[in-house]
C-alpha cells in the first residue's frame, strides 16, 4: 500500500507541473510554451543559487583544503544543508502531515496510518533533496577542482548525502507536530505560526550572514569557525566532515546513526498517534450573541475583508507570500548599521547610493507574492464567487488591494529609513519613495495575471499552491529578472550622466507601463476570464 500511496503522491506532484485542470475537472497538458518557461525558471534558479554556493565553498576550500581543518569544509556543508532543509520544511511538514485535506478520507480506507505518514514524509524528503543539490553539487565540484578529493572520501560523501535529510526531517516534523497540537486549539493559530516562522527565518538569515562573512574574511576567522563547529551541538556535522574529508567510514557510521535513528523513532511515535492527530477536533470559541446595530457594507469591501482574513489566518500564506515584506523590514532596521561614511569617503555620490537602495527595495518587492496564489487559494469553492451577482473584475480587484495594503507601508518605512541614513538630495528622496512602490504595484498585477493564466484548485494542502504552483514560480522569475533588467540600466545611466535621479526615473518607466497595461486588461477582460476559471 505504501508503494501505491507514493505513486499517487508523485502523480499529483508531476501533474501540477505538467498539467492544468480544465473546467470539467480533467487534466490537460500545459502548452509547450509554458513548459519551456517553467524549464527556464528552474534553470535560472538553479544557476543563480548554485553559483552563489560554488563561490562560497571555493572561498572556504581555498582556506582549509589540505590542512588539518579540511573536515570543516564538509562540516559547514552539512550544517547549511540541515539548516536549509529544516527552515524550508518545518511548516510544510505541519501542513502536509497533519492538515492535509484528504487525511480523513484516506484513514477511512483499509490503509495503515504509518503508510500514509511515510508517503507524505518521503515526498518532503524529495523536496529536501532538491534543496541539497543546489548546495552539495557545487561544493563537491569545487573540492575536486581544488585537488583535495579521494575515492574513499567521495564514496563517504555520497553515502552521507543520501542520509542527510533524516535529522532535519525528524526535527521539522517534531516541531510541526508540536505546533499542530498547540495551534489546533487556538482561534487564530496563524499568528503564532507566522511569528515563530518569521523569527526562525531572521535567525537563519543572520546566521548565514555571519557564517559567510567569517569564511570570506580571514583565515583567523576560519579557525574561529572551526572551534565553534567542534562543539557538542555540531558533533554529527563534524563526524560527516571527518568522514568525507578523509574517507573515514567509522565516522560515517556515526553520522548515519545521528541522521537515521531520530527519524526512525519519530516515525514510530507519529504512526501510533497519527489517527488521533489527523482526526483531531479543531478548537473554537463559543459564540455569544450581543445585540448591536449592523452597518451595511459594500460587496467590494466584503470581498476585501474576506481576502485579508484568508491571508492572516494562514501562516503558510503569510510566510510564503510575505517573505519580501519580512526582508524589507530587516532592511529598514539594518540600514542604520551600514557605515555610510565609508562609501562617502570613497567618493560615491549619495544619490547613487540611494539608487542602489531603491533597486534593492524593488527587488524585495518582487518577493511579495500574495496575488500569485490569491485565485488558486479559493480552491474548489471558486464557483461560489462565480455565482455572485458581481462583475469578475470586481472580485479580481479585491485580490489586488490586500497585497498593496500589506506591502506598501513596510516599503514606505524602509524607503524613509534609507533616506534618513543616506541623506540624498530632495529629488533622490522622492524617487526613493516612489520607485519601490511602482515595483510593488507591478508585482501585484503580474502575480494576479499569472495566477489567472495558471490556476490550481485541486490541491490537498496550501503549500502545493504556495510553493509548487507555476503561477508563483513564473511570477518570481518575471519580477526578479525584469526588476534587475529595469534597474541595472537605470543605475548605469545614473553613473554615466551623474544624475542618479534620472536613472531611477527611467528604471520605473517599464514597470509603470506594465502595471497600467495589465490592470486595464484585468478591468476590461476580467469578467470573462474569471467566469472561465474552474
Note down, in words, how this protein is organized.
By secondary structure, this protein is an all-alpha fold. It has 23 helices and 2 strands. Strands 1-2 form a two-stranded antiparallel ribbon. α8 runs parallel beside α13 (315-321) and α12 crosses α18. It is globular.
Q: Give me the side-by-side strand order of the main sheet.
A: 1-2
What is the helix fraction of residues, given as a range? over 70%
**Envelope shape:** globular
Structural class: mainly alpha
> Largest sheet at a glance?
2 strands, antiparallel
Q: Which runs of at least 5 residues are low in confidence (pLDDT < 50)?
A: 21-26, 212-217
Give the mean pLDDT. 78
Strand content: under 5%
Element-by-element helix/strand order = HEEHHHHHHHHHHHHHHHHHHHHHH
Number of strands: 2
Give the terminus-to-terminus CA distance. Answer: 32 Å
DSSP summary: helix tally: 23
Radius of gyration: 25 Å
Write the layout of secondary structure elements.
Blueprint: H1 2-18, E1 19-21, E2 27-29, H2 32-64, H3 71-98, H4 103-107, H5 113-145, H6 151-163, H7 165-183, H8 189-217, H9 219-229, H10 235-246, H11 249-278, H12 299-312, H13 315-321, H14 323-334, H15 340-345, H16 350-365, H17 382-386, H18 392-422, H19 426-453, H20 463-466, H21 470-497, H22 500-507, H23 509-532
Antiparallel strand pairs: 1-2
Helix pairs in contact: 1-5, 2-3, 2-5, 2-21, 3-5, 3-7, 3-8, 3-10, 5-11, 6-10, 6-11, 7-11, 8-9, 8-13, 10-11, 12-18, 14-18, 16-18, 16-19, 16-21, 16-22, 18-19, 18-23, 19-21, 19-22, 19-23, 21-22
